[in-house]
Amino acid sequence: MTAERLGAILMGAGLLFLAGAAVILGTNLHTEEQAADHTQQVRTAFVEEILPETPLPQDTATEMQKVEIQGEEYIGLLEIPSLELSLPVGEELTEQALRLSVCRYSGSYLDDDMIIGGHNYRCHFGPLSRIKAGDSLYFTDTGGVRYEYQVAGVEQIPGNEAQRLPWNQPGLTLFTCDYTGNERLVVRCLRIYGAD
Predict the structure, then answer these.
(1) What are the boundaries of each domain within the chain?
(2) Are 69 and 42 in contact (CB under 8 A)?
């Protein structure tokens, strides 16, 4: 095989790889755009149609309540003001639900051990890499009860070590994958008692 022929073959293979990468990028951007639209619609429905005008007292709920919006079940709204995020939280983390919103992975806000996971879409948990210790977060349940949290720390864990997601302290844990998919960014938050 001549050097010219080998060069042409390698050039063709390179162009095929570039075309494949462009298709994957386009698909990912389209999926992220759909997630952003869905998040906006559900957030608006949650705020305008679900939240009561007068929140229930914090100590009245004995189990998490969920609501159905656009065929999916949600347990509340997560707000991270420092990142300008306001996200509906899906009741259960499934592959389908995760494409649309951040979701409860395990635990409960009532038991103060909830873990929420989300894709690293810009409209979901992509901005978590900018969060800092001391930042405030809020979770509002379907009864309008608002729980306040403060970021205690941020850590990276290997993507295959899900057993490290639960924390040894009460609070809220958020997680997402990094862009390689090999690591997870984990945000640990403590509840601030006496909040609204």
Answers:
(1) 48-192
(2) yes
CA 130 to CA 16: how far, in whole Å? 35
Whole-prediction pTM? 0.81
The two three-digit tokens of residue 14, written as one number = 């390179």
Residuewise pLDDT in 10s, the chain (196 residues)? 777 777 777 676 666 666 556 655 566 666 778 777 878 888 888 778 877 776 666 666 678 899 999 999 999 999 999 999 999 999 999 999 999 999 999 999 999 999 999 999 999 999 999 999 999 999 999 988 899 999 999 999 998 888 888 888 899 999 998 877 789 999 999 999 754 4
The CATH number given to 48-192 is 2.40.260.10
